[in-house]
Amino acid sequence: MKKMTLISSFYGVEPQVACIKEFFPSSAVILAQKPKRGNTRKAEALLKKSIGHIVDIKWVWLEPAGDVASIAKKAIDAMESEHKRGQDLVINVGGEGSSVPLALLLAAYTRNRIIKNVVQAPRNGDSVIHLPKVGFYLSKSKRRVLDALAGDSDNISELAKRLGKSRGLVYVHIRKLEELGLIDKDHNLTDAGKVALL
User: Where in the chain is the domain with CATH 1.10.10.10?
Assistant: First the structure.
């Protein structure tokens, strides 16, 4: 039986404990914004004292004003590292008031094939809510168009020529990427679009 790692945004001790009770992970990676005050550090000490002897806890400290793509990159790095260690992955995407839960969820979309469960544990510590595993599921062509749009060019004729596709096909891909929320109406990548390329 594989061992499990919980990768979670931090929004209190109770949600972490609820996930640990539900899944019995051998390790946890907790993504948290660097504390401005001592509350997060107190929670870190409480978790270590209460469950640190059962679960190996690693904290990933994030800059308070970190953008979604950079946070998602750290989450993806943690997912891939734990997966390489042979761990099953459970992702807990709870919390509010910061970009960490969103970044973690988007990161899970990019690596949905290596994730066993995506959950949200309520702040009060009640049982976890199981969420569907979804992904970006971009075809190679759509990914190439998205990657090309990450550059500075949004001229469809120029993109079509560079990608070796017809203008009509490139336009269809652009329209679909916009519908998916990966680009805006001006063909700029959204936060989700930036994460999809990670």
Answer: 140-196
pLDDT digits (tens, 9 = 90+) for 125-146: 678 999 999 999 999 999 999 9
pTM of the model: 0.86
Starting at the earlier edge strand, list the strands of the sheet with 117-120: 56-62, 27-33, 4-9, 88-92, 117-120, 129-131
pLDDT, tens digit, 9 for 90 and up, residues 39-70: 677 777 888 887 878 899 999 988 877 789 99
Say how far apart CA 98 and CA 95 lie, in whole Å: 8
CATH class of 140-196: mainly alpha
Residues in the chain: 198
Which CATH number is associated with domain 4-131?
3.40.50.10770
Which residues make Cβ contacts (< 8 Å) with residue 180, sequence separation at least 6? Answer: 136, 192
Residues of CATH 3.40.50.10770 domain(s) within the chain?
Answer: 4-131
Q: Which residue's entry shows tokens 């899944």?
A: 23
